[in-house]
Amino acid sequence: MAEETRKVLIIGSGPAGYTAGIYSSRANLHPLIYEGGQPGGQLTQTTEIENFPGYPDGVQGPEMMQHLRDQAERFGAEVRSRMIVSVDFDKRPFVCIDDRGDVVKADTVIICTGASAKYLGLADEQKYQGLGVSACATCDGFFYRKKKVAVVGGGDTACEEALYLSTLASKVYMIVRKDYLRASDVMKKRVQERQNIEVLFNCNTRGLYGEDGVEGAKIVRFMGTDREEEFDLPIDGFFLAIGHRPNTEVFKGKIDLDAEGYIKVKSPTTATSVDGVFAAGDCADPIYRQAVSAAGTGCRAALDAEKYLMEHDEF
Ligand code: NDP
Fold first, then answer.
1. Exposed (0-12), middle (13-18) or buried (19+): which is 100, by Cβ within 10 Å?
2. Is 140 considered catalytic here?
3. Hey, whose CA ends up nearest to atom 21 of ligand 1?
4. pLDDT for res 314
5. Residue 153 Cα: closest atom of ligand 1
6. Closest atom of ligand 1 to CA, residue 180
7. pLDDT tens by residue, 56-96
8. Three-state SS at 297
């Protein structure tokens, strides 16, 4: 069992984690980045990213994450393809244990563990990932101009995604499992007023079909009742909007989380309820969830950690 002590430990490797790595390595703090179970984060699941400033011709998600990683490493950040599985924030330095049982003691910790979109759990969602299945309309909607798409979910996110997609696609179906939209009244009204959005109530998705990509969804209406019927819905894109789950399990009971599990930060800083522990990116952001905003908070977390270390020069 190895043991080491670091000034800055960054847990997570999306745009927030790598940006925190760039800033803290340039500040000579020799950060250690634990990449976690999905190195590079959610963006490695998308194809082309066209809304990250600085890429006028777009960039592939995995390529952009490699650029960010290279940039962090260039200034001395050490990247480790492993997970932190437990933390003790009562001790100083903080004690974090990885999936091999190695111990990292750290004067500051920056949590950038991101969030994961919820999926229905269909095998077809995996099969057509990047081939018509997406959980981010802002990222991928542009590829469905004048095409037909479906959005799964009846909450505010689903309405927002459907409204956004309706400005691009020729037709947007919302697949809603209940007989009402859970979304706020204002969102419901906007959806109802939008000509090219059709809400399919009481509907669940059984699967997807298509040769080289999504060509349609198999929908069941009134599932489990004597009125149950199945029909094919021809679509080119299938968007999940049934919520996100912050990846914060490991921090439960260690720092303050909100009711949904998002890390509470003392805005406008990235400070958490534990002095010396900071949070950036989607794990602390239920609202914006964009690569560029995650990178922005990663920068702020690194600057907050640096300031904290300067103010506590016993480290
Ligand atoms: P919600 O939990 O509010 O809604 C999730 C939706 O997905 C519900 O309609 C739910 O159905 C449906 N769903 C969940 N699991 C499944 C499943 N397995 N199969 C089919 N449908 C499923 O999540 P949101 O992401 O929409 O919103 C999260 C929070 O963020 C909310 O508080 C929301 O108000 C807020 N928000 C606010 C926005 C705004 O104000 N502009 C924008 C976006 C989010 P069911 O109703 O049957 O449970």
1. exposed
2. yes
3. 153
4. 66
5. 7
6. 46
7. 998 988 899 999 999 999 999 999 999 999 999 999 999 99
8. helix
Query: Which residues face 238 on adjacent strands?
Result: 133, 150
Give 52-57's long-range contacts (Cβ < 8 A, gap of 24+). Answer: 52/291, 52/292, 53/292
- Quote the ligand 1 centre to 240 CA distance (angstroms): 10
Instruction: Name the active-site residue from 140, 282, 285, 304.
Output: 140
Q: Active site includes 139?
A: yes
End-to-end CA distance of the chain: 24
Q: Which of 255, 311, 250 is nearest to 90 (CA)?
A: 255
Q: Residues 19, 300: contact at Cβ < 8 Å? A: no
Tokens of 228: 């149950």
Distance CA(241)–CA(263), nearest Å, equals 21
Phi, psi of 112 (to 5 degrees): -135, 50
Q: Which atom of ligand 1 is nearest to the CA of 159?
A: 26
% helix / strand / coil in the chain, to the nearest 5? 30, 30, 40
Please give the structure tokens belonging to residue 63.
Answer: 């390529």
Distance CA 104, CA 91 (A): 12
Bridge-based pairing of strands 237-240 and 148-152 is parallel
Protein residues whose CB sits closer than 6 Å to any atom of ligand 1: 120, 152-158, 160, 177-178, 182, 242-243
User: Angle between the 15-26 and 291-311 helix axes, to the nearest 10 degrees?
Assistant: 40
Predicted confidence (pLDDT) at residue 232 exceeds the cutoff of 70:
yes
> Which residue carries 């009125």 as its tokens?
227
Could you tell me the distance, in angstroms and rounded to a whole number, from the CA of residue 42 to the centre of ligand 1?
A: 19
